[in-house]
Amino acid sequence: MKYLSLIIILLLALVLGAFAIHNHHAVSLDLWPLPFGEVRVAAFVLVLAAAFLGFILGGLCAWIGGAASRRAAREKARALASARRELEETRARLPAPSARA
Questions:
Q1: What are phi and psi of 16, to 5 degrees?
Q2: For site-directed labelling of 67, which of 14, 29, 31, 84 has its Cα 20 to 30 A away?
Q3: Are 29 and 39 in contact (CB under 8 A)?
Q4: Where are the alpha helices (DSSP H) in 1-101?
């Protein structure tokens, strides 16, 4: 599994590198309401920045969506810890079992 992830990362790096090499020409980005107006950036920078922003926002949405599951897991862990403490207290109060011959 470790080698598979390494191969996928290397392939992704090669594809992104080839994309950056072939799309290095400048494009103008018009940010109309902002005071600095038009900005010229390389095409690959614009595309990779948009992909990175999408990746971050997608991860944030997934994290927020999993809040209920994480809360339920914490509650179950607390209940389990409480049950284990109660079991140990009960075992401590009981007399030791007698050995049968």
A1: -65, -40
A2: 84
A3: yes
A4: 2-22, 43-65, 67-93
Q: How many C-beta atoms lie closer than 10 Å to residue 47's C-beta?
A: 15
The band of 101, judged by pLDDT with boundaries at 50, 70 and 90, is low
∠ Cα 79 62 56 (to 5°): 135
Region class of 67: left (phi > 0), else alpha (psi between -120 and 50), else beta: alpha
- Identity of the residue numbered 34: L
Round to whole Å and give the CA distance between 85 and 101. 33
Considering the entire predicted model, what is its pTM?
0.63
Mean pLDDT in residue range 35-61: 90
The pair of structure tokens assigned to 90 is 């009960």
Instruction: Quote the tokens at residue 35.
Output: 């005071």
